[in-house]
Amino acid sequence: MEGRILCDKTHPEWMVEMLKTYDHKRSQPVFELDALYFRNNPIFHDILSGYSEHRLLMGIPIESKLNRDLKKSFPQTKQVSMTNGGCNWLHAIVQIKKRNDSDPKKIIKKTFESHRSLKQVTIVDEDIDPYSAESVEYAMATRFQADRDLVIFKNVRGSSLDPSSNQQKLRTAKMGIDATRPLSKRPEGFELAKIPKIDKIKLEKYFGKL
Fold first, then answer.
1. 3-state secondary structure (DSSP) of residue 106
2. Alpha helices in 115-173 (DSSP H)
3. Higher model confidence: residue 208 or residue 182?
4. Fewer CB atoms inside 10 Å of the end CB: C or N, the chain?
5. Cα separation of 111 and 69, whole Å?
6. Which CATH class is domain 58-184?
7. What pTM did the predictor assign?
8. pLDDT digits over 103-155, tens only?
9. Which tens digit of pLDDT belongs to each residue from 3-58?
10. What dihedral do alpha carbons 180, 116, 14, 1 form, nearest 10°?
11. Which residues, listed in sequence order, are joined to residue 203 by a DSSP beta bridge?
């Protein structure tokens, strides 16, 4: 496609943001098509706003930045995941090897500072998969106490994409969750049970090749 973006002509348009919601109606420049070239059985690759490609382009650089920043400031950081449920933009899971009970809250604060659009940060232990929503929820169910491990930041700068925030002033509330094992409690109480020698069990031995 060949054409021109007109500087003196606009058209009101609704854009779909990466949260799969409609942005404010804005006046956008008009593109005037001059020529269209194609071949037989053409393939046209476009990015569908609000879906996985859009989120990958936005979220992957932020995930890389958070991994770099947190690992530099806190070597106990293992992995940072921008979650699919948070549209790869608003929620982050940080996996750490906890050294002190104060580590999670310090890392929560640093994570919010590194990406101002974040709305929720959850800290988990090494044995919790930060890419598994089920694994993270399990950590919250067994290692998190709301009156002790919840951090709330009120009236702070948030994302312009979040429709629940104050869109005019870009103010929101943010939540940090420490879903790590308390070091003051016996570690055996949090150990994930495993079937003995499960890695050596071969179903083919009992049922043949499936």
1. helix
2. 133-143, 146-149
3. 182
4. C
5. 8
6. alpha beta
7. 0.83
8. 999 999 999 999 999 999 999 999 999 999 999 999 999 999 999 999 999 99
9. 999 989 999 888 888 888 888 788 889 999 999 998 899 888 888 888 888 888 89
10. -100
11. none
Distances (CA, A) of 83 to 50, 126, 142: 15, 17, 20
Per the DSSP assignment, residues forming a β-bridge with 93 are 81, 122
Question: In this structure, is the dihedral angle defined by the CA atoms of residues 69, 153, 175 and 179, taken in order, positive or negative?
Answer: positive
Q: What is the dihedral of CA 157, 153, 56, 72, to 10 degrees?
A: 100
Show the tokens assigned to 148.
């002790």
Beta strands, E only, 77-162: 77-82, 91-96, 120-124, 150-157
Q: Among 97, 70, 90, 74, which residue's Cα sits nearest to residue 173?
A: 90
Q: Could you state, in order of their start, the residue ranges of all structural domains in the chain?
A: 2-35, 58-184
